[in-house]
Amino acid sequence: MTLLIRDALVYDGTGAPPMRADVAVEGDGIVAVGPDLPLHAAEVRDAGGLALAPGFIDVHTHDDAVALEAEGLHPKLSQGVTTVVTGNCGISLAPSPMQGREAPPPPLDLIGEASAYRFARFGDFLDALRAFTPGCNVVPLVGHHVLRARAMADLARPATEAEVAAMRADLAEALAAGAAGMSTGLAYPPAKHATTDEVAALAADVAAAGRLWTTHMRDERLGVVSSVAETLDVARRSGVRTLISHHKCCGEAAFGLSTTTLAMIDKARETMQIDLDLYPYTASSTVLIETFARDSRKVAISWSEPHPEMEGRDLAEICAEWGVDQATAIARLRPGGAIYHQMDDGDLERILAYPPTLVGSDGLPRDKRPHPRLWGAFPRVLGHYARDKGVVPLETAIAKMTGQTARTLHLADRGRIAPGCKADLVLFDPAAIRDAATYDDPVRPAEGIAGVWVNGALAWAEGRPTGAPRSGAVLAA
Ligand SMILES: [Zn+2]
Question: Domain Amidohydrolase, which positions (predicted)?
Answer without folding.
Answer: 43-457
